[in-house]
Write a structure and sequence with these properties.
alpha+beta, Cyclophilin, 3 domains, EC 5.2.1.8, eight-stranded antiparallel sheet, 455 residues, Four Helix Bundle (Hemerythrin (Met), subunit A)
Length: 455
């Protein structure tokens, strides 16, 4: 069928250029739009083929459409990746040759099975290097409230109340176990957070007695933030050693929260967009460190949005011939390697895509699931050519499980937009980044090059 042909073309294109770079040229954006349009027409054509009595004409039309789509996909491997990701989670052929020695599935995998997690803050919580089942059960109970609130009217408040009571019950029964996993240097902070969480859950139950739906989501967000703080307090130290070849680079040993302000032009509905970004050094320390270091150099301040095509928003290409950050100390473009953390592994994989390693079943710790997923762009045939160009994905994973789409394991994800991510859809080429600044976590950056005298 035509849809299968589209997928085969996408996979063939990716076999030739699986490391396609998200470029900013207008022609690429046009190709993306054309491919999606052709894919939609192909799917409609498939339906008409089934209903038509003239099989020969249908086959000719199908072949013509297939050839056209194949050519377009071959021109833009990124478009192929996006198209395939939207159409099918994982091909049958790929599943048949899946890497059998995949990483061990952690005990927490039971808690995150089911539909893909699309909330950026939840993805960040599950990506922390901890393994305390009790606090994760509290987290899961509170996260389930989002789905329960899809029930209309007051009927939703019954299941919501059950989830809150379940969270409180697990917390009270396992408080000692949870506290035991708090880092020794953070015990006092951990005790305060556990007290705040317990009191917050009790207060939540009382508020729900009012049958007021409007209180549900704000209180849920507040308590999940406390849960996240407890989980971060369980990380005693940075969990692995950076490879020697990258050890002298700017490294983010932890997480950092950033605020990005963008001046939006020619949009009567939005003038200034302020987005919160969390970059994750636990899972991409070299890439995240590189970005935070560039932020502290004010590299992005005053830079325009250079691509916005409905798939991604991208920036980071400086003026001049270089396509990345030129280190003034060396006169050379500073690059970062492809950096992929796989669930069950102790450290990231560097330099190779999961596809190249045959790890088709591996789950990435930071998947392309959330609207506003932040990743590093790179050259088409060079995995280790990322520098300063970054992109944000304008898509949520509705049907695709984590790490079973075309993008996971091919680009370094190193953070998510955690507040006002919807504003990304309003950004256009030419809108200006007024500033990006670190509001929390700068002390996690080691080997900074932005300081006087550093290279």
């Amino acid at each position: 069928m035509v849809v299968a042909t589209v997928l085969q073309a996408a996979q063939a294109s990716l076999a030739v250029a699986s490391t396609s770079r998200c470029r900013r040229e207008g022609s690429v954006g046009a190709q993306c739009g054309t491919v999606v349009g052709a894919s939609s027409r192909a799917r409609r054509g498939t339906v008409s083929v089934k209903a038509s009595s003239s099989s020969s004409d249908s086959k000719d039309d199908e072949a013509s459409t297939s050839n056209a789509v194949t050519k377009m996909l071959q021109k833009c491997a990124t478009c192929a990746a996006m198209t395939a990701a939207l159409l099918m989670p994982l091909s049958t052929a790929a599943a048949a040759v899946a890497f059998e020695r995949g990483p061990a599935i952690s005990e927490l995998s039971v808690l995150i099975s089911g539909p893909p997690i699309k909330d950026a803050n939840a993805l960040l919580r599950y990506a922390l290097p901890i393994n305390n089942k009790s606090i994760k059960e509290v987290q899961k109970s509170l996260e389930e409230i989002t789905d329960e609130m899809r029930i209309p009217g007051e009927k939703a408040l019954g299941p919501v109340g059950q989830s809150v009571r379940q969270a409180a019950r697990v917390l009270n029964q396992n408080k000692t176990q949870i506290l035991a996993d708090i880092a020794d240097s953070k015990k006092q902070e951990g005790e305060q957070l556990l007290t705040a969480l317990n009191e917050g859950l009790q207060d939540y139950q009382k508020q729900l007695e009012s049958k007021d739906r409007s209180i549900v989501f704000p209180k849920q967000k507040e308590l999940l933030r406390v849960v996240g703080d407890i989980e971060e307090a369980m990380v005693a130290k940075f969990p692995f050693e950076i490879p020697e070849e990258f050890a002298d680079r700017p490294i983010l040993k932890g997480r950092a929260t950033l605020e990005m302000k963008i001046n939006v032009k020619d949009n009567p509905n939005v003038k200034d967009a302020v987005l919160q970004i969390v970059v994750d050094g636990y899972n991409a320390p070299v890439t995240a460190g590189n970005f935070v270091d560039l932020v502290e150099r004010h590299f992005y301040d005053g830079m325009e949005i250079q691509r916005s095509d409905g798939f991604v928003v991208q920036t980071g290409d400086p003026e001049g011939p270089a396509e990345g950050f030129v280190n003034p100390a060396t006169g050379l473009v500073r690059t970062v390697p492809l950096e992929i953390m796989v669930d069950g592994e102790k450290a990231p994989i560097y330099g190779s895509t999961l596809e190249e390693l045959g790890m088709y079943k591996a789950r990435t710790k930071l998947p392309f699931n959330a609207f506003g997923t932040m990743a590093m762009a790179r050259e088409e045939f060079d995995n280790d050519s990322g520098s300063s160009q970054v992109f944000w994905l304008l898509k949520e994973s509705e049907l695709t499980p984590s790490s079973a789409n075309i993008l996971d394991g091919r680009y370094t994800v190193f953070g998510y937009v955690t507040e006002n991510e919807d504003l990304l859809a309003d950004l256009k080429v030419g809108d200006v980044i007024e500033s990006i600044r670190v509001v929390n976590g700068l002390d996690n950056l080691v080997n900074p090059s932005y300081k006087a005298g550093a290279v």
